[in-house]
Amino acid sequence: LFQPAVSVGNVGQLAIDLVISTLDMTKVGYFYTDCLVPMVGNNPYATSEENSKELSINAEVYLLPSKKLVVLQIRSPFIKNKYRPFCDTLLSWVKSYNCARVIVLSSSHAYQRDDEQLLGTPLRYLLTPDLEKAVGSHIQELKWKEMEKVAAYPGVNDTEKVLHIPGGGITKLLFTESCSKGIQMAVLLKFCSEGDNIPDAFALVNYLNDWLQLIKSEVNTSSQWKSPSSWRLLFGSGLPPALF
């Protein structure tokens, strides 16, 4: 199961858009919850005038049987104080349908990195203990950087370290609950800032592809992913040619 966290820049949701669109996944249902702001809109993955009239809501489920892949796309923010009820419902759903693994695509505020997190790649990962046993050696071969823990009380006590994902929304809660419930979960995230976050989404989905090889490619590039039709005016229509 792939799912985004509603986090800074909506990077996880944009990356999930790329996965659904590129793999041409089929919508099979929705995830009913009162924890998300209600919304309805046109089909974000429309390929013709006919299917552009289909409606989409705030949490929908897509399927690709050939890869045994299920995707939960979330399109609206959480209602205040509803993180935990959503987390409990989601993880119960994961267990009831025997999902082998869960991968959460997320992001975190770039400006809140500590000195260690400023070094190297802006991409990070987390694995629950149960998933670490299964894929830890492969992840080490990829030479990825694990999300660093930070001082709980900076400048006062730098020895006590905690997991801190500012701007990550429900990411930390999902991860810690999965650790305690024995669920195999990975979190892949990117440090970023608000703005045009399409490049961040491409970077995150390429990071995912390095591991799982959703699409075969010797070199990950943005051009190998199919942007959905809903992205056409996502960050405006561009400047009028007369201005140049």
UniProtKB/TrEMBL annotation:
<comment type="similarity">
    <text>Belongs to the PSMG2 family.</text>
</comment>
<dbReference type="GO" id="GO:0043248">
    <property type="term" value="P:proteasome assembly"/>
</dbReference>
<dbReference type="InterPro" id="IPR016562">
    <property type="entry name" value="Proteasome_assmbl_chp_2_euk"/>
</dbReference>
<keyword id="KW-0539">Nucleus</keyword>
<dbReference type="Pfam" id="PF09754">
    <property type="entry name" value="PAC2"/>
</dbReference>
<dbReference type="InterPro" id="IPR019151">
    <property type="entry name" value="Proteasome_assmbl_chaperone_2"/>
</dbReference>
<comment type="subunit">
    <text>Forms a heterodimer with PSMG1. The PSMG1-PSMG2 heterodimer interacts directly with the PSMA5 and PSMA7 proteasome alpha subunits.</text>
</comment>
<comment type="function">
    <text>Chaperone protein which promotes assembly of the 20S proteasome as part of a heterodimer with PSMG1. The PSMG1-PSMG2 heterodimer binds to the PSMA5 and PSMA7 proteasome subunits, promotes assembly of the proteasome alpha subunits into the heteroheptameric alpha ring and prevents alpha ring dimerization.</text>
</comment>
<protein>
    <recommendedName>
        <fullName>Proteasome assembly chaperone 2</fullName>
    </recommendedName>
</protein>
<keyword id="KW-0597">Phosphoprotein</keyword>
<dbReference type="GO" id="GO:0005829">
    <property type="term" value="C:cytosol"/>
</dbReference>
<dbReference type="InterPro" id="IPR038389">
    <property type="entry name" value="PSMG2_sf"/>
</dbReference>
<keyword id="KW-0143">Chaperone</keyword>
<dbReference type="GO" id="GO:0005634">
    <property type="term" value="C:nucleus"/>
</dbReference>
